[in-house]
Amino acid sequence: MLKKSSFRKQLGNLIHPSENHSYLLAVSGGADSMVLASLFKDLRDEKQHSECSFQVAHINYRLRGEDSDKDQKVVQDFCEKNHIKFHLYEVSEKDKKPENSIQLWARELRYAFFKEIQEKEKLEFLVTAHHLNDQLETFIINLSKAAGINGLSGIPANDNHILRPLLQFSKQEIYQFAEEKRIEFREDLSNKKSDYLRNKIRNEIVPKLQETNDHFLENFKKSSSYLNQTRDFVQKQVQEIENKLTVFNQDHKILSKEKLDQESDFVKFEILKKYGFNQEEEIPKIFKAENNSSFFSKEYQLIVNRDELIFIEINKKTENTHEITLIDRFDFSENRITINLNDSIEDIDGINKNMEWDFDAEKIQFPLCLRKQQDGDEFYPTGFSGKKKVSKFFRDEKLSILARQKIWILSDGKNSVLGVIPFRQDRRYAKDEKTERILKIFNETKNEI
Question: Which residues form a coiled coil (predicted)?
């Protein structure tokens, strides 16, 4: 049964005890969210404001005319009466509503609003009023989508600083609590329409299921708990398998492709899903791909490198593509300037190789820079006739995609390639018998004892 003591226990199960927790409550004006707000108010009052700092956010979507405004008033009046900071987002013409997927649009809008408030007000947790009936509806939706154990485990009670402390309580318990405590709330009559999948499940399927067993919801809650425990156990086992397959884990992660391919399809999917590769039909393509093939998820680049799968965070890769200025100009009062690349960059290309290039300084347009390869880069490498695209040069050198990403390009003020470090310089700019002013670029590797 929902009581202040049982709610306090559920909230305590989700977070570590602290006097500094702060919360943003998502409150729509319905029974569940108004009960949530009332419980937080009581908790705050009991602790005399010291351990339960919270604020309230409400979105007026203006989808139901006057009813939307009345929802807003209920929430706003509650906050004013109880001295709670209230944040309001009113949808206007600038918020273009899609012709379909209204629910997805509304969800993205409200979570963007919540995030903005959290950052501005420095509120640690977002708290929503999802309850046991929501959990059952989500289970049925995911069951119809073949979502697997993660989907059947339902809505997490604590997920990335989003708390759902009412998940253990049914809609009936929430209504009963609201009645006992005389908590004002508003019913969203649009939920009675079965025009959306969730509403159809809520209005037509769940009542039929509950008719089959007086304890249906209570039994579902136990089943959900078992599924969550099973999921946690499975995830632990999958992580142990991944750890055994990991051959490198520093600035990027490398897994043994051969050993992973020997695992079950389930294990392969669970591991690759962690890196954003969650389309089951794509997984066989990864294991059949040619050497140096790349696959991209939102956060990772996956490189197939012979018997390895290399995962590189895209944001980290981007951080390493900046430009380094070696020298702004050449002082022509001098006949020689020497630049040691070890003073500018470390681990030049992951290959332990010395280089020493002499340029005719008068042939170069400054500044002189180091950067990463760009589309269309080409140069006239020493030891070759004619010009060559840098990408073709990489292929001829049999460099993996990972090795290519580490290599620096020496370029001039026109962004022309002066050399591919540490392999070849462009012969057009090299020192010759007529050179009077020399620019020496070298890299001296350090021998470890």
Answer: 231-258
